[in-house]
Structure formats: C-alpha cells, structure tokens
Amino acid sequence: MIKVLAQDCMIDEATELDILELVDLQQKMALETENITLNEDVLEQGITALIQDSHKGKYYKIVQKGKIIGCVLNTYEWSDWRNGNIVWIQSLYILPAHRRQGIFTEVYQYLREQVQKNPTQKGIRLYVDKRNETAIKAYKAIDMDNNHYEMFEWLK
User: Fold this and answer.
1) pTM here?
2) Segment 7-37, tens digit of pLDDT
3) Of 3, 8, 2, whose CA–CA distance to 67 is shortest?
4) Pick from 113, 108, 111, 72: which is nearest to 92 by CA?
C-alpha cells in the first residue's frame, strides 16, 4: 500500500526489482553507522530471502521523484506476554541529503498506524547504537523511549 509522505515522498513495500538499490543503501548505512563493509553477496541474498518470504518481515522503500532515497525493514518478535507480535524497525536508512525534512517521522507514523490497525501487532521497537546521539534525539522526539530494556547480543 503506497502512502504519500512529506516532501513529495512515498513509502511502498519493496519488491525484487528494488533489491540492488536496497543493497546499496544498506552498504552505505553499515559504513556510516558502524564503519564496516558488508559482504555484498550475503547482503543481497539476505534481502532477497526476506522479500520472497513475508514471514521474515517486510522491506519498505522511501521514494522521492521516482528515486529510492531510503528504506526500512520490519521484522517480528513474538511476545507471549502480549499474545502478539512486536514490530521491530531495522535497517532504517535515509540518504543524508534527505534527512531533517520530517521523512522519518512520517515513516514512523505510517508504521505506527499499521500496528494500531492490526490486532495481532502490539507495539514497535528498534535498537540504536548508543553513540548515535542524532538518532536517539529523533526517536525521543516521536515519543519512543528506552526506559525498559538494555540490549545484549552475541553474534556469530
């Protein structure tokens, strides 16, 4: 479902035709946020697998004037306490030239509306690098908080 956002942008579900552009955006995000270069083949396979299997999640593209300027991935976490899914915002990236224009706020509002309409979805979560002060301010500005949990991980 296409939704028109601020600055003549639209958000729409990504398709297999968008995979190479999503790979490019994710490479840029990894380099910018964590100073790492992702294995392009693994990344392309991962994005393809998700787009081909909606149970894994949903990729959205943010489009302005026919060009993809950003993306966001939603995955799901089952909550036995809530008897429903928590929607995770992952792989969120907007090209630097398009930031601070209200686009993320509208993307978040769109995702929040989708969660509110769906009785099996119980909320939204995301994680952020503790050093990313700009993102933390943006998330607090849209009434998200980090009052409940610290995240720990082990990655192979």
Assistant:
1) 0.86
2) 688 999 999 999 999 999 999 999 998 899 9
3) 8
4) 72
Q: HSE on the CB side for 64, CA within 13 Å? A: 15
Tell me the pLDDT tens digit for each residue of 89-141.
999 999 999 998 889 899 999 999 999 999 999 999 988 878 888 878 888 88
**Does residue 148 form part of some domain?**
no
Domain that holds residue 13: 3-141
Q: Total structural domains in the chain?
A: 1
d(Cα 148, Cα 72) in Å, to the nearest integer? 23
Contacts of 123 (CB under 8 A, 6+ apart): 82, 86, 87, 115
Assign residue 88 the CATH number of its domain: 3.40.630.30
Task: Give the number of C-alpha atoms closer than 13 A to the C-alpha of residue 60, restricted to the C-beta side.
Answer: 24
> Is residue 155 in some structural domain?
no
d(CA 144, CA 141): 7
Euclidean distance between CA atoms 21 and 141, whole angstroms: 29
- Cβ-in-10-Å burial (0-12, 13-18, 19+) of 24 comes to middle
